[in-house]
Amino acid sequence: MAERGLYLACYDVADDARLRAALLVVRAYATGGQKSVHECWLNTLERGDLLADISLVLNPLEDSFLLVRLDARLPTHTLGQALQPVRPDWFYLG
Questions:
Q1: Is residue 88 domain-resident?
Q2: Is residue 94 in some structural domain?
Q3: Is residue 72 one of the residues assigned to a domain?
Q4: Do 5 and 41 form a contact (C-beta atoms < 8 A)?
Q5: CA 58 to CA 65: how far, in whole Å?
Q6: Any bridge partners for residue 64, and if so which?
Q7: SS3 letters across 18-33
Q8: What pTM did the predictor assign?
Q9: Which tens digits make up the pLDDT trace of 27-80?
Q10: Which of 9, 58, 60, 70 matches a 20 to 30 Å C-alpha distance to 20?
Q11: Domain count along the chain
Q12: Distance in angstroms (rounded) separating the CA atoms of residues 50 and 26
């Protein structure tokens, strides 16, 4: 199995119907998130699938989508009353 990397998937969608559709697409790949920013552990194939799926939903003239790879080795910083995430040895996607 290909190694997964940690990504942030972020979108800004002008139309409410496309916004709901984008949320459904990204949530299918996400392990967590808030509003229009989601954490995704993706391998190369899943990354390509996400980009292909979201391109079918968004209007490139009105909407934007950003997929940023993060370094999972770096420490997590939280603000306010947020709790540090638990980092188990494994997690389930499905």
A1: no
A2: no
A3: no
A4: yes
A5: 8
A6: 12
A7: HHHHHHHHHHCCCCEE
A8: 0.78
A9: 999 988 888 899 999 999 999 999 999 999 999 999 999 999 988 777 777 777
A10: 70
A11: 1
A12: 7
- The Cα–Cα gap between 79 and 26 comes to 24
- DSSP conformation letters of the chain: -PPPEEEEEEEE-SSHHHHHHHHHHHHTT-SEEETTEEEEEE-HHHHHHHHHHHHTT--TTT-EEEEEEE-TTSPP---TTPPPPP--S-----
Between CA 94 and CA 77 the distance in angstroms is 27
Q: In what order do the strands lie in the sheet with 5-12?
A: 32-34, 37-42, 5-12, 64-70
Q: What is the C-alpha to C-alpha distance for residues 29 and 25, in angstroms, rounded to an integer?
A: 7
Q: Quick check: 19 and 2 in contact, CB under 8 A?
A: no
Residue 54 lies in domain: 5-64
In a domain, 79, yes or no: no
Of 18, 12, 31, 22, which Cα lies nearest the Cα of 70? 31
